[in-house]
Description:
The protein is α+β, with helices and mostly antiparallel strands. It folds into 3 domains: 2-58, RNA-binding S4 domain (Structural Genomics Hypothetical 15.5 Kd Protein In mrcA-pckA Intergenic Region, Chain A, Roll), CATH 3.10.290.10; 65-158, Pseudouridine synthase; 162-265 and 283-300, 2-Layer Sandwich (Pseudouridine synthase). The chain is 20% helix and 29% strand. It is built from 6 helices and 18 strands. It starts with a strand and ends with a helix. The model has no long low-confidence stretch (mean pLDDT 90).
Amino acid sequence: MKKWIVKENDIRLDKYLGTCTEYSRNQIEKLLKENAIFVNNKIEKASYKVKENDEITLVKEISTTTKIEPQPMDLKIVYEDEDIMVIDKPSGLVVHPGSGNKNNTLANGLLYYTNELSDENGTERPGIVHRIDKDTSGLLLVAKNNTAHQILAEDFKEKKIIREYVALLDGEFPHRSAIIDAPIGRDPNNRKRMTVTDKNSKHAVTHLEVLKRYKGYTLCKLKLETGRTHQIRVHTKYIGYPVHNDPVYTNKKCSEFGQFLHSKEMDFEHPITKKHLHFSSPLPKEFQDFLETLEEKNCK
């Protein structure tokens, strides 16, 4: 049990705790939801305005130490300054630890590279503002402090950060473009998959534009209006043109490389300097080599 005596007035409880404790915003939010924080022996909402001499009591211990080990890793850093990093993630690399997997993730590599990482998303997701799937390659934003993290998270929420993907789809998509507006939720028949469903789902919109058609395949550009788990993979499967080589959402035997889905472009405003930034990542060699074989077949 921990206690604090308030020395200020008229500040929201959650914000006050963020300044006087070592806990992250996410940790404070969780503690408040779990009724683990009392003010003058009463449970108060996050919006409660603290008063001088209020007694705040925390009745639950929470660890602020890092639970994952730093590991040396060959990180491809596209950009770095004192506030943010942009990483070009290879296919096959998990972004952060999950159940039963504490090692060999991007988070482990980031911790080895620097101890200047935000902890807004908890100690097991250092610096991680958003994620891309294990077998999706390409650009990923990392925050080096909580101020940058909070601003970037809000910019993602407000759709100010533009992400553009390139994917190779199975089948020849007949239209030049499409807007896929279909809610996504957990697949009730397979908890490791997501699906288009009206039950326990979230609004999801993907913009698709055809770049080139091959015999049996379509290369396309996709922009996310929302950021749901497996969104592009679920939406393209839903319209009948799944991402090529996807080990989860196709019934075909897939190679170790994983889905041909690449986070290629990113546009955003720097959270601190407010400078406009644009980054682009080339397609992975496996992706590019396969496209070249399709080009050869098209020419025959």
